[in-house]
Structure formats: structure tokens, C-alpha cells
Amino acid sequence: MHMLIVPIRRDSGDPIYAQIYEGIRRMILEGSLTVGAKLPSKRKFAEHLGVSNTTVELAYEQLLAEGYITSKPRSGFYVQDVGELPYAQPAEDQKSAPSPQKKKVEYRHDFSPGRIDTAAFPFDEWRRQAKNLIDPASAEFLLLGHPHGDPELRREIATYLNHSRGVRCTPEQIIIGSGTEQLMPLIIRLLGPFTVYAVENPGYPLTHHLFRQNDRMTVPIPVDGEGIDVGILEESAADAVYVTPAHQFPTGAVLSAKRRSRLFGWAAGKPGRIIIEDDYDSEFRYGGIPVPALQGMDRHGRVLYLSTFSKSLMPSLRIAYMVLPEPLMERYDELFSLYSSTVPRLDQQMLAGFMADGSFSRHLNRMRKVYRRKYIALTAALGPYAASVSHEESQAGMHLRLTVKSSRSAGELVRLAADAGIRVQSAAAYSIARTEEEGLPEIVLGFGSIPETDIPEAICLLMESWGIKKDGTA
User: Fold this and answer.
1) Is 439 left (phi over 0), alpha (psi -120 to 50) or beta?
2) What distances in angstroms separate CA 209 from CA 66, 88, 203, 250, one per listed residue?
3) Distance CA 204, CA 217 (A)
4) For residue 102, is pLDDT > 70?
5) What is the pLDDT of residues 7-35, one digit of tens each?
6) How confident is the model over 353-358, as a mean pLDDT?
7) CA 153 to CA 352: how far, in whole Å?
8) C-alpha triplet 258, 262, 266: angle, nearest 5°
9) pLDDT at 42 over 90
10) Which terminus of the chain has a smaller tally of CB atoms within 10 A, N or C?
């Protein structure tokens, strides 16, 4: 094909990859790039534009993620049919046309992996903490506190992490923030503009988005049954790696002991290398002993530990935290000493009190039993369909990844489920660069929010929507 003409303004405040993305996107929407048209290879396009291969790769990844183009293995990138996309209108037209009200889809059964069991929330205990704080005696908490977060909460988190996850830290190493999406940009700035990040593929989409949004180079590393492939990581140019070792998202794999050791070897192989450990749902393990945190095994300050209360308590609380390795603490304070904590102090104090009086531990013990029963109910409901549907035996977390023996694509299975009033997600949605599906379709089922008694009916309806019978025929 002819080389594309994409105007680039190097004096613009917009990242160059974003300008390339917008230029190609506009050509697709205006029709000058037709459906099925092949895009230039990343190398040739980068040479033509006078930019790095990475810059073009970031632009193509964004177009892939939004469905404007598709990738065919060993062939290249091709324009998709976006005629039916709701956001496929050019920007100028969108400004003049009134935005249609998006209709909220109601599902009979929602298997979204990010949801929790709200019916089991300890409202009475939480209300008691709020009642104790909403008082003139708490007036000091209306003022700004320590930029790292209130000392009371950081002490409780340090104690909890030491007892439950084997994390070795002081309260001074803990930084409180309003969610992973607020802490990760701080980490990105802390590690500097030239750090290359390795990320699990498939993996957590928010993190992929944050690296891209901050114009950072990422290297996708494949994941198998033992977790991230450290051998491929060793061959990459990465200086930092983002991992979910206790329960990889979305595959459910646990990073094996051999790979944990090799990962520490990779980190020690070059000064400044960092392992970012996201321990997002480690509280919920239903068989065997808990998988220890990498941070507790670290002896050289190479692990930056990250976690949140979204799964263990509630997503809307917006309290996450990171444990900085000591070599990074001075640098952090140099950069962010004037920052204020992004979490309201009353919320911090409520959580600190909830942890201090034992309510948090009791709640976790209850929820482990609740989610374990749901896990058992879900695997039991899937049992009669084992000839057509298989899943990993992770016995952890709040989701399962299904492999479906079907000639249909994962996207088709998601649509068929939605037509039956069931919300599921394709595992391919968590891959960085989406290619045409190879192998059997994979589906992610989150069971956190579905009542235990509804699970058998939900699975029965799901299998009916896919045309799968209990004897394995379709």
C-alpha cells in the first residue's frame, strides 16, 4: 500500500504516538482508509515519519484496543469495519450533534470480575466507625494530614501485611492513595521517563492504559500456567516489570517458585531494576497455604508492593496503598513532598478504626467462606459440562477463566450470553495487542456479586445460550 500521510507537530503538547493514532483514526472514520486496507509495517512507517518503532507501536496498540484495526499473525495490521461503533463519528460532528443518552443494559446475571458481594458488607460495624468520627472531637481530621496518609492507617496496614502476607515494612514506607489509577502515575514518575516496563500479557487493562497514557514504553511478556515467562523477560529491554504473582489476572496462574527465584535474579542483574507486585486479591484463597508476597522474600529493595481494599472491602472506598522499597523513599519525598494525600482523612480514620478493633479481620474471614462457597457452587455447576468447558483449578480469587470447545469466537459467545441476559467477558479483552483468535475461545467469569443460590441457574442459562448440553454435545 501507499505510505500514509499523518501530520505530526513536534512542538505540540500531545505525545507523537497520540497524533499518529488520531491521524489514522480520522482517515478510517472519513473513509479514506477503507475496510480491509493494510497499514504500513511498524518499521517502515516509523522510518517514513522519522520516529521510533515504539512510537508507532503505541499508536497501533491504541487503535487495536479500540477496535479500529485488527492484527493478523505474520501478515500485518488491517482496517476493521467500524460503521456500527457508537463512537465512530468524527470529533467535529460530535460537538454539533447532541449526544444520545446511553441506554443502561440490565443483566439477569452479571459475571463481571470486578464486582463484590454487597449483600455481605458489614454495615453495622462500618456505621459504628462513622458514628464515632462524625463528632466535633474529630475536627482535626477536617484539615490536611500527612502526605503519605494518616499514621494510624499506615500502622494498621503495616501490621496487617506483616501478619497476613509476610510483607516486611515500616509504616513510613507506606503511601496511601485513591486507587491504583492514582498511585501508578506516581510510580511512573518516580522511576523516571526512560524506564521500559514489562507487563503481563494478558493482564490488567487499567495498568496497560496508564503506561500508554503516560507515554511509557511497554513490553508485553506472555503468561502460562507458571505465571509470567521470565525467560522472555530476561531477553527484553525492560527495567521494571509489573506482575500479579499470587493470582495472575486474568489467567489465575500462580508464579512458580522457580520463576520467583529467576525473577529476583533478573532484578539483581542490573542496577535500578524494579519489580512492581500487585497483590490485588490475595486475601481470598480457598485451598492450600497462602502464596507469600514477593516483597517478603526481597532482601535488596527491588520490590515495590501495591494493593487495594477494592476486593476485600468495597471498590467505591477508593483506598489503595503501596509499600516503597527503602532505596526509593528519599527520591519519592523529593518529588512529592508538597503533595497532599488524595484520600479524605475521615475515610482513612474510619478504615483505621475498622482494622484496629478487629472488624476487618472478622469481615475477611466471613468473606473467605462466602466466596469459597460460591467457588464450589460455580465449579460444581460447570462439572456436568466438562466435556465442552474447562477451567483452571486455582482455588483463589473471585473469577475463573473458562476454555470453551466451540467453533464460535469468544466475541460471539459474549454476545450470545448477553442476549440471554448474562454478562460475561472475553479473556482476549485483557491482551495488549489483540490478534485474530487462535485456539479455543476463553471467557472470564467473575462470581463475586452473584448470589450462591443463583449460580446453578446462571450456568445452565449460559450453557443453553451457547448451545452446550450436559453430555458435552453442542
Assistant:
1) left
2) 12, 20, 11, 16
3) 16
4) no
5) 787 766 677 887 888 888 888 877 788 88
6) 97
7) 5
8) 170
9) no
10) N
> Treating both helix axes as pointing N-terminal to C-terminal, what angle do 359-382 and 345-356 enclose, rounded to 10 degrees?
80
The predicted-structure confidence for 233-282, as pLDDT tens digits, reads as follows 999 999 999 999 998 888 888 899 999 999 999 999 999 999 999 998 88
Please tell me the distance from the alpha carbon of residue 219 to that of residue 208, in angstroms, as a whole number: 10
Are 315 and 449 a contacting pair, CB within 8 Å? no
Instruction: Give the count of beta carbons closer than 10 Å to the beta carbon of residue 90.
Output: 11
Q: How far is CA 363 from CA 14, 27, 121, 167, 358, in A?
A: 46, 53, 8, 21, 9
Q: What is the dihedral of CA 343, 399, 279, 293, to 10 degrees?
A: 150
DSSP per position, 235-255 = HS--SEEEE--SS-TTT-PPP
Strands 197-201 and 109-110: unpaired
- Residue tagged 469495519 (cell numbers): 81
CA–CA gap between residue 322 and residue 277 (Å, rounded): 9
Which residues lie closer than 8 Å to 199 by C-beta, 6 or more apart?
Answer: 207, 208, 211, 218, 219, 220, 221, 241, 242, 432
Q: Which residues contact 322 (CB under 8 A, 6 or more apart)?
A: 174, 175, 177, 183, 187, 304, 305, 306, 307
Sign for the CA dihedral angle at 123, 113, 258, 195 comes to negative
SS3 state at 39: coil
Q: Tell me how far apart the alpha carbons of residues 380 and 422 are, in angstroms, rounded to a whole number.
A: 19
Beta strands 197-201 and 218-224 are parallel
